[in-house]
Amino acid sequence: MHIQTLTIDDQDAPLSVWLAQEDSGLTPIHFAHANGFPAGSYQRLLSELAQNRTVYALDHRATWDGSPYQASKHFSWKDGADDLIKAIEQFAPQGVIGVGHSLGAVITLLAADKRPDLFKQILLIEPVVFPARFFLAFAWLPQVARMKLFKIVQRTLQRREQWRSREEFVDTLSKKSLFKGISREVLNDYAQHGLREVTTDSHPYFTLRFRKTWEAKVFMTAPYLWSTLKRLSIPCVVWRAEQGDVVPLKSWQRWEKSHPHHSMHVLPSLGHMAPLQNPQLMAREIQNNFLSI
């Protein structure tokens, strides 16, 4: 893996690149990561996918060096899709296969809806698709009220922000339920690519590249996707984790019924973090569902 720098809206945006191990001439992949997990965290998965296709992965704006500590009031998932579009126009204007996890799956979907000419196919892992009634219930609430109702937002804002070392970071995460089933090797990848070192006069420390203030903002602003899905014109593959909770069963059933031409799959015994829990299995699933392009 090596990192290039793109310029998007006058800011330096890090783009991770895994060059294809074989020059197959196949369409390259773009991988969009989940909320809080920069692309390098998926090193085990993406190196598998790069066997015969080059893989690009733009890190979310939250991680960019020039980004403020807190997202602007109006920043949304659609802005993340616009960043992705601007990046693809630079590194693969001929088009990509879009793969995404969670937040990244939704950003990929939004970008493909807006610019279908840049995507040959999209493959979505655990996209955040809430029922329509969720948006009816919360549409009138101000963000302060949403923060109080969304426990995940409160937990995110209470997260620790500093660690003395990457080893301490990994030790801390390995005890948390969210990271159950994720190997220490994968957690080490997260520590390597998800932290930045800060040097001070007293002692250096490590802090999150994807700041918790941005992570909380993302959780509070999930978009309504049903109209987007209705317009989608390119081939689409979707995975729902059997033990996940961001694709409610009713949403999944509605998706299957409304879009029978989409290829729908369930990942048995895996949770929302499936690409990090079992990257080899997830790589096989993705490779088995690529179009021959």
Characterise the protein shown here.
The chain is an alpha/beta fold and 293 residues long. It has a domain at 2-136 and 222-288: Rossmann fold. It is 39% helix and 19% strand. The protein has 13 helices and eleven strands. It has helices spanning 43-49, 77-91, 103-114, 132-138, 143-149, 151-157, 166-173, 184-194, 212-220, 226-231, 249-258, 274-277, 279-288, and strands spanning 2-8, 11-18, 29-32, 55-58, 96-101, 119-125, 162-163, 195-198, 205-208, 236-241, 263-267. Strands 1-2-4-3-5-6-10-11 form an eight-stranded mixed beta sheet, with helices on both faces. Strands 7-9-8 form a three-stranded antiparallel beta sheet. The mean pLDDT is 92. It comes from Hydromonas duriensis. This is Pimeloyl-ACP methyl ester carboxylesterase. Residues 31-284 form the AB hydrolase-1 domain. It holds the Pfam family Abhydrolase_6.
CATH topology of one domain: Rossmann fold
CATH 2nd-level architecture of one domain? 3-Layer(aba) Sandwich
Looking across the biggest beta sheet, what order are the strands in? Answer: 1-2-4-3-5-6-10-11
Largest β-sheet summary: 8 strands, mixed
CATH class of one domain: Alpha Beta
CATH homology-level superfamily of one domain: Alpha/Beta hydrolase fold, catalytic domain
Summarize the structure.
This protein has 293 residues and is of the alpha/beta class. Helices cover 39% and strands 19% of the residues. It has helices spanning 43-49, 77-91, 103-114, 132-138, 143-149, 151-157, 166-173, 184-194, 212-220, 226-231, 249-258, 274-277, 279-288, and strands at 2-8, 11-18, 29-32, 55-58, 96-101, 119-125, 162-163, 195-198, 205-208, 236-241, 263-267.
